[in-house]
């Protein structure tokens, strides 16, 4: 993709997901060419991307119509990032945290039952690195490792549906760091629980893995709930 194409997609994607273009808004390609100062081919390709994300649809003799959130590919990392950067941040954070709370404990059980040796070793190494970064107060390194840990967990489940969530969940964890929602020094109990999850999976203890991951998600929900307490839920 060209940089011009990326710029148009990013600008329009943010405008739509931030609510500046409500559902039903009509865009015309010719006007977009003038607004962005780019060629018709760049606009056409950008609009194809937006349509593939469910943000827009082409309407004959009208133009490009903005669609409502129930049509969006809400798990696409671009949409997750745009929403995390906008006024819908609280609702986005709540939705994906609730999804994580439902899915990740189940993924931990499957990983304990089915993960291969390399996947187990990866989780053990990431948990140990998280401990080191947390003890050192290296928030950026901890956030990256936390993202890698939870993405690796989903893949270790051996369930392709769970694994398909890894980029969206990784994006929201990174977003927490970008927007200053990570603690300046990870709690010892958080580090303990991640190590417990990794060791439980490595030893095939599904019940312990489920309990430790559930504790992590309950703590995450408590920490983040003030961010979304006033965010309305969408009408779907």
Automatic annotation (TrEMBL):
Sequence ranges assigned to domain HTH gntR-type in this UniProt record: 2-69
Organism of this sequence: Jonesia denitrificans (strain ATCC 14870 / DSM 20603 / BCRC 15368 / CIP 55.134 / JCM 11481 / NBRC 15587 / NCTC 10816 / Prevot 55134) (Listeria denitrificans)
TM segment ranges: none
GO MF entries: DNA binding; DNA-binding transcription factor activity
InterPro entries hit by this protein: GntR_C, TF_FadR/GntR_C, Tscrpt_reg_HTH_GntR, WH-like_DNA-bd_sf, WH_DNA-bd_sf
Pfam families documented for this protein: FCD, GntR
SMART domains: FCD, HTH_GNTR
Keywords: DNA-binding, Transcription, Transcription regulation
Entry annotated with the keyword Cytoplasm: no
Lineage, uppermost ranks: Bacteria, Bacillati, Actinomycetota, Actinomycetes, Micrococcales
Gene3D superfamilies per UniProt: GntR ligand-binding domain-like (1.20.120.530), Winged helix-like DNA-binding domain superfamily/Winged helix DNA-binding domain (1.10.10.10)
Keyword Acetylation among record annotations: no
UniProt name for this protein: GntR domain protein
């Amino acid at each position: 993709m060209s940089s011009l194409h990326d710029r148009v997609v990013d600008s329009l994607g943010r405008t739509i997901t931030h609510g500046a273009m409500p559902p039903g808004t009509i865009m015309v390609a010719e006007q977009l060419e003038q607004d962005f100062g780019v060629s018709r081919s760049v606009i056409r390709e950008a609009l194809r991307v937006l349509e593939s994300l469910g943000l827009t649809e082409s309407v004959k003799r009208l133009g490009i119509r903005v669609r409502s959130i129930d049509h969006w590919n809400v798990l696409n990392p671009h949409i997750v990032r745009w929403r995390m950067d906008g006024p819908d941040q609280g609702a986005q954070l709540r939705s994906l945290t609730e999804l994580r709370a439902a899915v990740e404990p189940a993924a931990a059980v499957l990983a304990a039952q089915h993960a291969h040796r390399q996947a187990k070793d990866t989780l053990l190494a990431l948990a140990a690195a998280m401990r080191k970064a947390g003890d050192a107060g290296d928030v950026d390194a901890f956030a990256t490792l936390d993202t890698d840990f939870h993405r690796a967990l989903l893949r270790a489940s051996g369930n392709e549906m769970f694994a398909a969530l890894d980029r969206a969940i990784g994006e929201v964890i990174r977003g927490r760091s970008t927007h200053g929602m990570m603690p300046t020094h990870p709690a010892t109990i958080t580090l303990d629980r991640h190590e417990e999850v990794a060791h439980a999976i490595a030893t095939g203890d599904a019940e312990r893995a489920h309990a430790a991951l559930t504790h992590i998600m309950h703590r995450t929900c408590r920490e983040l709930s003030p961010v979304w307490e006033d965010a309305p839920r969408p009408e779907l």
